[in-house]
């Protein structure tokens, strides 16, 4: 009929502990960023690279750019002023 609060308390405590562990892990990674080295390719990545023929250069060339490019909207906004 009524739920016992023990389960919700345990879940809340577990979630809080997970968040604390994740925050501590992020802090550790930030503090020791110079010690992080990339792992070699694993079996799945090698298989996908062979299947789709992509290389590291090809994936970086197809990655979306974050640089801002002047477009038509900015020219129209400048004309309106």
From TrEMBL:
It comes from the Bacteria. This is Uncharacterized protein.
